[in-house]
Amino acid sequence: MSSSSAIDPVTLGVVWGALRSIAVEIGTTVHRTAYSEQAREGQDFSVAVFDAAGRMVAQGPYSPGHMGAMSFAVRNALAAHPVDTLLPGDAILLNDPLLGSGHLPDFFITQPVFHDGALIGFVVNIVHHTDVGGQRPGSQGVEGIFDYFQEGLRIPPTKVWREYRPDAGVIGIIAANTRTPDRVLGDLEAQRSALRVGELRFQELCARYGRATLAAAMDEIIGRTETSLRAAIREIPDGVYTFEDFLDDYGPATEPLRVLVTVTVDGDTIVVDYDGSSPETASGLNSYINYTRSYSYAAVKCLCDPFGPMNEGALRPVTVRAPEGSFLNPRPPAGGGPRAVICYRIFESVIGALAAAVPERVAAAASHMANPTFGGWDPVHRRRFVAYELVLSGTGARATKDGCEAMAWAFNAANIPVEAQEARHPIVVERFELIRDSGGPGTYRGGTGVRRDLRFLADDGKLTNLSDRQRFPPYGVFGGTPGRLGRTLLNPGPNEQPVQSKESRAFSYGDVVSFQQPGAGGYGDPLLRDPGRVLEDVLDDYVSLEAARDEYGVVIVGDRVDEIATAALRRERRARTRA
């Protein structure tokens, strides 16, 4: 870590802006050229720029689950293929759960960048691929999985491209082990094209400033990031902070999974320890340690230094531990395909632990996402299909603001547009709406749940559900109320059938699957909420008249607040609570 810089501030600022721009341009290229809905519409990918020592310097604004793991993936790629064996145009692919971000659909590609024959750094990206084989379409099954050999094709660090030329044999193996070869190969080409763009921009930057200046600037950026985060940590009171939360289960008729975290703040360092969490499961629902680290890093960064760079320097002050053999650090070959459903709980557990230390910075728990996958036979186009969904709902209330609606929480992604799903798959999205009274009441209200109903015009249908918060609601903080529980239904209505949150099951032509997501938690006492804000929520249909009265103590008549009746009702509620 440098204490002073030999680079003038203007040059350093320009180089830093250029590195961030390179990362964003790599991501934009993936976004615009990807074949799959999850990459092109849902933005389920990430990108970063590394220096010649394999240290992350700049990243794009994408998923922390990928980004926190990317440093480890690059380190593992270079351990298998040392720098002195690499040539321009080489690229290393891996998706091994232990070496990357914890499940097989994530394909990491690391490409070296040379200028005038000298290595100057690496450009890296990862895309979540539609299907890599295995037991279930989409490669994310929970029940019936007892090791990752059931989850799909596993690729150790492999030099798939040599001097810009693909290894046809390896590409052929990948294509032969997926239900959607057109999308997987298309997304691979998007990844490679994007890295080529990043390589060219990195070389242009080096040509402008020279290798020595560029290397010194990257070192300075990493050092300043570390200094900034350590300074922010020092502002948090030293102490040991604990929090406990639960995932509903790891499949039908299974027990809850305990997440117990102890966060120790000591000077300018933080240790996040998951000792006491549940043991690894005989299912797909486990989080390999890199993934557990990723969302722990993200939570610490959000609370301590949210506007500073996220790179190697931000990882150094934070240590993340989980007992080997726990579901947050399983032993290979434990399953891990659906580990995305765990990320909210990791992120929110760290936030819950630090709420007592930094109450003004934390938020209540968010509505949980649904990330189901579907497969079957499309009778119109006469082909097999695999569809991937993201149903993103409300975020938790904050110290000064309500939660947001229909947004990703612990990562940067987006709800997949209705038009994209309907254009590519035998799917009709019949409902996509906010759920009234689902957001947790508080001085600031939690974001509402989202309902998304999909009708399938497919035969031989297979659903792999992946959701949570159907037994343990999203928590509220400082007197805020938890959000409403979620549920999944097959053919909602008089003959509806509940679908367990991690169940694998069949569906028939014309069936409707309804994802009704939980609401997010509230922040602060609901009786302190501004009655005018409650009125706005009623008029916007976020809150019913009954809930305005019962949860907030606000009496609304027509389109106005009855201030006298509201004051009396709130006095009565407070007196009842004190008694």
Highlighted features:
single chain; 579 residues; alpha+beta; Beta-Lactamase; seven-stranded antiparallel beta sheet; five-stranded antiparallel beta sheet; 13 helices; 31% helix
Molecular structure report:
The protein has three domains: 9-227, Beta-Lactamase (2-Layer Sandwich), CATH 3.30.450; 363-524, no CATH class; 527-579, no CATH class. The protein has 13 helices and 22 strands. Helix 1 packs across helix 6 (211-234), helix 3 crosses helix 7 and helix 4 crosses helix 5. It is α+β, with helices and mostly antiparallel strands and 579 residues long.
Mean pLDDT: 96
Stated plainly, the CATH topology of the largest domain is called Beta-Lactamase
CATH C-level category of the largest domain: Alpha Beta
Number of continuous helical runs:
13
Based on the structure given, which CATH architecture of the largest domain is correct? 2-Layer Sandwich
Terminal residue distance: 58 Å
Measured as a percent range, the helix fraction is 25-40%
- The tally of beta strands, per DSSP, is 22
